[in-house]
Amino acid sequence: MQETLIASACPECDAEISLGQDIRVSEIVECPECRLELEIASVEPPQLILAPEVEEDWGE
């Protein structure tokens, strides 16, 4: 039995990104074309947004 893939487009370069069946909101994926890290914002329908930059924590 073949796994069904969900597809979405990269918001930066518009490349098609194949996602697995068991994706979750807030999961991070990488665009195979432009290599940007993207966050899954919605599962139904699948929507990708630019992942937030990780900022350094200075103990504040």
What does this molecule look like?
It is a single chain. By secondary structure, this protein is an all-beta fold. The protein has a single domain, classed as Rubrerythrin, domain 2, CATH 2.20.28.160. The chain is 0% helix and 35% strand. The chain contains no helices and 5 strands. The chain has strands at residues 6-9, 16-19, 28-30, 37-42, 47-50. The strands form 2 sheets. A 3-stranded antiparallel sheet has the order 3-4-5, with no helix packed on it. Strands 1-2 form a two-stranded antiparallel sheet. Strand 4 and strand 5 (47-50) form a beta hairpin. The N and C termini lie far apart (51 Å).
In a few lines, what is going on in this structure?
The chain is mainly β. Helices cover 0% and strands 35% of the residues. The strands form two sheets. Strands 3-4-5 form a three-stranded antiparallel β-sheet, with no helix packed on it. The chain has a two-stranded antiparallel ribbon with strand order 1-2.
Q: How would the blueprint of this fold be written?
A:
Layout: E1 6-9, E2 16-19, E3 28-30, E4 37-42, E5 47-50
Antiparallel strand pairs: 1-2, 3-4, 4-5
Protein name: Lysine biosynthesis protein LysW
Organism: Streptomyces termitum
Structural class by secondary-structure content: mainly beta
Radius of gyration: 13 Å
From the spread of the alpha carbons, the general shape counts as globular
CATH architecture: Single Sheet
CATH topology: Rubrerythrin, domain 2
For the biggest sheet, the summary is: 3 strands, antiparallel
Total individual domains: 1
Order of H and E elements: EEEEE
The termini sit apart by 51 Å
pLDDT averaged residue by residue: 87
Strand content: 35-45%
The top level CATH class name: Mainly Beta
Number of DSSP strands?
A: 5
Number of helices: 0
Roughly what percent helix?
under 10%
pLDDT < 50 runs, ≥5 residues: none
- Which strand order does the major sheet show? 3-4-5
Pfam families: Zn_ribbon_LysW
Organism: Streptomyces termitum
Protein name: Lysine biosynthesis protein LysW
InterPro entries: LysW
